[in-house]
């Protein structure tokens, strides 16, 4: 089977799966020579389609997002006790709630790595940099301050109370940047890339996991990232901090729905591979890894939605060897993305 969909030899979903299965002599979970290896869980009924069951449901959950709620996503008010600052200036930010953000978000960046990459990329307007008084000096902080001055960004030192009040992640590491929001890129531009390697999240709602997957995708050489407009985490300060600057370099698009995006990808000649415990193909042996490809990771707990799973050309699984039946979605993303990266690196 040719891997080049754009050459007009596109196989059907079942054809793609069977081609992958034949090449791997029974790679389905629990079968064949792997001696009972279990596929890492990744898909299933997402509970949103009236309780419809997915085909071949093994009873396992999906790659789990964990639903952590420990991060502080509520922005408090700036105190007016800063050195040389009046209360009106801090009220400008304290009156802005998270709901003011539109689109992807990303306008408040916290943490040393995330802020440094924001300034290194120099792709967005940064209107202010807040630095904690009494911070520990480090080369990274000094670089941030120097970059800010070169870009004529206003730099302010604030006390611990003010830093804590404005922070919306658990630990901003003494540095917060206020910038313009990240603008989504055009989906067609991502799909038209002849080397397209796109990561899509289907209903992942934890900001920390979103950021971790973005960081992995960027490091694995992904050419784009796609998020649903609904039922998805956004680029909150916690997500931006976890991404460690990946959001500044990775083109991000939004879609009204993942199934419709996958149909669009198919028309553009791009293969789509979902991760699920019942996948027919070992994730390390995806036959179309070197072709234009979309990797789809499902929601926490429920995995891939029924419609999303149905639109994927191939369903891949991650072999596991322990007692647990699930991987965190960011861990699953790392395995899948670098499996694709290794294949592409050899070609």
TrEMBL record:
InterPro entries: Alpha/beta_knot_MTases, Ribosomal_eL30-like_sf, rRNA_MeTrfase_TrmH, SpoU_MeTrfase, SpoU_subst-bd, tRNA_m1G_MTases_N
Any one GO BP annotation for this protein: RNA processing
Low complexity bias locations: 20-30
Residue stretches of biased makeup (Basic and acidic residues): 74-87
Limits of the RNA 2-O ribose methyltransferase substrate binding domain: 108-185
Keyword Methyltransferase: yes
Span list, region Disordered: 1-109
One MF term in the entry's GO annotations: RNA methyltransferase activity
GO cellular component assignments: cytosol
Comp. bias (Gly residues): 9-19, 32-61
SMART domains listed in its UniProt record: SpoU_sub_bind
Pfam family, one: SpoU_methylase
Keywords per UniProt: Methyltransferase, Transferase
Name by which UniProt lists this protein: Unannotated protein
């Amino acid at each position: 089977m040719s891997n080049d969909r754009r050459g007009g030899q596109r196989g059907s979903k079942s054809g793609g799966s069977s081609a992958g299965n034949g090449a791997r002599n029974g790679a389905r979970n629990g079968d064949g020579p792997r001696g009972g290896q279990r596929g890492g869980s990744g898909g299933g009924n997402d509970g949103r389609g009236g309780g419809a069951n997915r085909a071949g449901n093994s009873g396992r959950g999906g790659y789990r997002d964990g639903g952590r709620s420990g991060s502080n996503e509520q922005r408090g008010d700036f105190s007016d006790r800063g050195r040389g600052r009046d209360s009106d200036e801090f009220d400008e930010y304290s009156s802005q709630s998270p709901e003011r953000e539109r689109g992807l978000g990303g306008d408040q960046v916290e943490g040393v790595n995330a802020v440094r990459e924001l300034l290194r990329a120099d792709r967005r307007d940064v209107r202010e940099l807040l630095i904690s008084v009494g911070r520990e000096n480090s080369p990274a902080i000094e670089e941030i301050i120097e970059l800010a001055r070169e870009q004529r960004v206003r730099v302010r030192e604030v006390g611990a109370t003010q830093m804590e009040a404005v922070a919306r992640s658990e630990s901003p590491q003494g540095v917060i940047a206020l910038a313009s929001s990240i603008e989504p890129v055009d989906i067609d531009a991502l799909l038209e890339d002849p080397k397209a390697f796109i990561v899509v999240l289907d209903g992942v709602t934890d900001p920390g996991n979103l950021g971790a997957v973005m960081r992995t995708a960027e490091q694995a050489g992904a050419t784009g990232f796609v998020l649903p407009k609904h039922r998805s985490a956004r680029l909150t300060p916690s997500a931006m901090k976890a991404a460690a600057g990946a959001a500044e370099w990775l083109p991000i698009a939004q879609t009204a729905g993942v199934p419709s995006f996958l149909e669009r990808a198919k028309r553009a000649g791009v293969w789509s591979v979902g991760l699920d415990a019942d996948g027919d193909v070992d994730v390390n042996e995806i036959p179309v890894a070197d072709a234009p490809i979309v990797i789809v990771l499902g929601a926490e707990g429920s995995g891939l939605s029924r419609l999303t799973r149905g639109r994927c050309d191939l369903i891949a699984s991650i072999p596991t060897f322990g007692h647990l039946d699930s991987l965190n979605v960011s861990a699953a993303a790392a395995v899948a993305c670098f499996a694709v990266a290794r294949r592409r690196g050899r070609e």
